[in-house]
Amino acid sequence: MRLYKSSDYATIQEWAFIRDMNPPPKWSLPETGIISDDVAVGFLILTNNHCGILDFFISNPTSYKHVRSWALDQITSKLIQLAKEMKVKKLLCDTQHPAIKERAIKHGFNSLGLYECFEKGL
After folding, report:
1. For FRET with 96, which of 19, 84, 115, 116 sits at 20 to 30 Å CA-CA?
2. pTM of this prediction?
3. Cα 8 to chain center, whole Å?
């Protein structure tokens, strides 16, 4: 586990390609990220109101499932610790994937119910 560097973006692109999904634009990734080389990455978005958001998690689909799961748990724990060190008062995350919902609950997040998300490019 180590801090994400912008040079790691090619890895995210590769994993997204294998998963047949679009990678997040490089400019959209926050500075605070943790990567487990060849396995998974996740990020902490810091807001200006003492909240943080865990997002942009992606894993290498060619790695072993149990290794991915362990790495994603470790990344989540490390990001939570970093958020505490940065004096974040509330962490948020959202997903539509059952496995991520289970991971959030495992790490002490409470479900706030179902919402629909919207976006608008500017």
Report:
1. 84
2. 0.88
3. 14
Distance CA 25, CA 9 (A): 9
Dihedral (CA of 12, 14, 18, 21) sign: positive
Name the stretches of the chain with pLDDT < 50: none
Which domains, from first to last, does the chain contain? 2-106 (3.40.630.30)
Helix, strand and coil percent figures for the chain, each rounded to 5 = 40, 20, 40
Q: Is the CB of residue 46 less than 8 Å from the CB of residue 88?
A: yes
Pick from 51, 110, 101, 104: which is nearest to 76 by CA? Answer: 104
Amino acid making up residue 75: I
**Residue 108 Ramachandran class (φ > 0 left, ψ -120 to 50 alpha, else beta):** left
pLDDT in tens, 84-94: 999 999 999 98
Taking the CA of residue 99 as centre, how many other CA atoms within 13 Å lie in the half-sphere pointing to its CB?
10
User: If we measure between CA atoms, which residue out of 54, 56, 53 comes closest to residue 11?
Assistant: 56
Residue 20: Cβ within 10 Å count = 7
